[in-house]
Each structure stands twice: as C-alpha cells, then as structure tokens.
Specification:
Layout lengths: L1 H12 L19 E13 L5 E18 L22 E7 L3 H13 L8 E5 L6 H15 L4 E6 L9 H10 L1 H13 L5 E6 L1 H16 L3 H5 L2 E5 L5 H9 L8 E5 L4 H10 L20 E4 L13 H4 L1 H7 L2 H7 L4 H7 L4 E4 L2 E5 L8
Parallel strand pairs: 1-5, 4-5, 4-6, 6-7, 7-8, 8-9, 9-11
Antiparallel strand pairs: 1-2, 2-3, 10-11
C-alpha cells in the first residue's frame, strides 16, 4: 500500500508547479480559437487579483476568455506557466468581473440569446480534487472544444488546494462549497436556458450530489425539473453514500450518466485512503445500482498507460472521437433499448432500472 501511494504521489507531483500563478496572454486571441467561460467561485483572492486555495464566504462572478492553440490535440491541455506560446499552449486571454449575481445572470441570459434557439443550453462543470482555478477553467474549455459542445459553459471553481497531498483539505472544501454551488445553479436557471447539464469530476461529484441533495430537501423535485441531465465522471464517491444521496431525490435527473473505469489508479488509492470497499467511479457491476435509473458507462478499455487514468473521458482521443459522434451519443443515452443495442451491439447490460454501456475502441470501426 505504501509503495503504491508513494508512486502515485510522485506521478501527481511531477505535474505540479506554481499553479496559482496566472499569466494573461491577450496576444493569443489572434492565434487560437477563443471560448468564453462563465465562472462562479468561492476561492479567496491572490495578491495579483486571481484566485487561491483559500476559502471565501462570498461568491465572485466573472467570465474568462481562453484560447485553444492551433496545434492542440484532442485530450491534451498543454500549458506553460511562465512563457506562453499561443501556437502550442492554452492561454487565458482576458477576464471580466461582474458586480454581483444579478449582473452575472443578466450577462448569461444575454449570451444565451446570442445562440441559435436549439443551442441555448448551459453546461455547468464542477472540477475535482487537486485543481487550481486555472486548471478547472482550462478543462471546461477543453471539453467544449474537443466534444464540440453547443451552448454556453459555466464553471464552478471551489477552493481545492491544488496539491496532491492535500486530499483532506479538499474534502472539507467541497463540503464548505455546497451553498455556493446551489446559489450558482439557481442563478443559471434564472437565466432561462434551454437545458442545464450538470457535470462533475472526481471529488467534484461529491460536491454535486451533496448540493443536489440539499436542494431536494428544501425543494423536492427541483433536480428533475431544472436539469436536463447529470454526468458524474470518475466519481470519487463511496457507493453507499451515493445511494443515500440519491434516495433523497424525488426523481433523479434524466439522463443520469456515470463514467467508470476499473483501471482508475487515483480511485484505487482513494479506496486505501478512505478505508472503503470501492468508489463509485470504479463500479463495473450494474446490479449494485439496480434500483436507480442511471447509466454506467464503462470506459476501462480507453484508459491510457501510465499516469492516474482518472479523467479518461476528457483525455482519451479515441473516446473523444467516439462520443463526439453526436447522433451515436444521443442514441446511446436514449430510453429505447432497441436503439441502444443496435448502436452498441453486445455492450448493453440492464439490471432492473440501471443500464451499463461497455465502450470499446473497436466501436470506432463501425
């Protein structure tokens, strides 16, 4: 156990630098493809006016423009924290801060109105463990770009320490951040989007579920009415805890997708750290969730060699290529069993209310 933990920590640390530092590169606007991400955060401020791992009692609202470089490859976020090459690196181009929640909601409503009527959806992304402010923004933009997502993106940045050795701090921070995420979700709904798709990764899925649970206690049925779908990516969440959270919902959002992998090394370490039998993101038996109308999407076959394999959905070029086929993805998450089995022959398993989709790179040959 000690050897495994040490190796994984070394892998994580090798990717770390001064990740709170943010370098604005306005010149990148003329080089890359620029996306605007709306952001709400309860992080404290740095001396430079950006956001740290400290906790704030107030939410700050802003938009950040991010340039995706011409040489970008699907699944990669190439950075240089000290000298940005706009041809090679993701870059923060500019930011605009709002004077409170009403101004934020108004700007979001305006951005939605600029979209075609069929594309006025909002994707809200909640980052996971060991993320800086910039990490989460870059990931939000990378997913929009690589998956060619329509609509507007919103990022909720909670005060992770951005340190692989600060897991307990991040666990406390996510609990600290529930009210902030609830406030953001209600503001996004007030902007009247076509749909809200809520996406969480790693520990961010626990924050997501805890927040929806407290909303359901106060306003039963809100999640089904307000959300057009929920996605849990590599959830670092105890299975029993997930069931108790889900039991408080009048009805889970539809679709409700959980991306899992038996090869996720970060979740294997989390099992040891938490003393639990298995994390939700490693679950490959749909029988354990048979009472819940969820779709387990097993992406184990796409896991890369090396690293933590903790974000296969966003880092595997083959998986991105498969899921970017919008018609295939819509059919796979549809309620029609015949349509799903025709799309992914031999990969669909049902267990009462739950469905499992086992994806393979071979599907790209079809």
């Amino acid at each position: 156990m000690l050897r495994t933990a040490l190796i994984l920590c070394l892998v994580l640390l090798s990717a770390c630098g001064d990740r709170e530092a943010v370098l604005l590169s306005p010149e990148a606007r003329d080089t890359g493809v620029v996306y605007t991400s709306f952001v709400a955060t309860n992080r404290g401020r740095t001396e430079q006016g950006w956001f740290s791992d400290e906790r704030s009692e107030e939410l700050d609202y802003l938009t950040v423009d991010v340039s995706v470089p011409p040489k970008h490859k699907a699944g990669e976020i190439k950075l240089n924290l000290h000298r940005v090459d706009p041809e090679e690196h993701f870059a923060l181009v500019s930011k605009r801060e709002f004077n409170g929640s009403q101004e934020f909601t108004g700007a979001l409503r305006h951005a939605l109105a600029q979209q075609p009527k069929a594309d006025r959806d909002v994707l809200v992304y909640v980052h996971g463990y060991n993320n800086s402010f910039a990490d989460g923004v870059y990931r939000t933009v990378q997913m929009k770009h690589d998956f060619e997502l329509p609509g507007v993106i919103v990022h909720y940045s909670w005060p992770s320490a951005a340190n692989p050795l600060a897991y307990p701090y991040d666990r406390d921070s996510l609990l600290y951040s529930r009210d902030g995420l609830e406030t953001l979700l209600r503001q996004v709904r007030a902007a009247q989007p076509g749909r809200i798709i809520l996406v969480g990764h790693s520990l961010g899925t626990m924050l997501m579920m805890e927040t929806l649970r407290q909303i359901e206690i106060a306003t039963p049925g809100w999640s089904r009415r307000a959300l057009g779908g929920a996605v849990l990516i590599s959830p670092d969440l105890d299975i029993d805890l997930f069931k108790m959270q889900a039991n408080r919902f009048a009805a889970l959002p539809e679709p409700f997708a959980i991306f899992v992998s038996s090869r996720d090394r970060a979740l294997q370490l989390s099992v040891r750290l938490n003393g639990s039998r298995k994390r939700l993101g490693s679950l490959t038996d749909p029988q354990e969730l048979a009472d819940y109308p969820v779709t387990l999407v097993d992406v184990s076959e796409f896991a890369k060699m090396g690293g933590t394999r903790h974000f296969t959905l966003g880092t595997s070029p083959l998986l991105i290529a498969l899921l970017s086929k919008s018609d295939a993805l819509n059919d796979a998450f549809g309620r029609d069993q015949a349509g799903r089995s025709g799309l992914l022959p031999g990969t669909v398993i049902t267990a009462k209310n739950a469905t499992q989709l086992i994806l393979s790179p071979l599907l790209l040959l079809n």
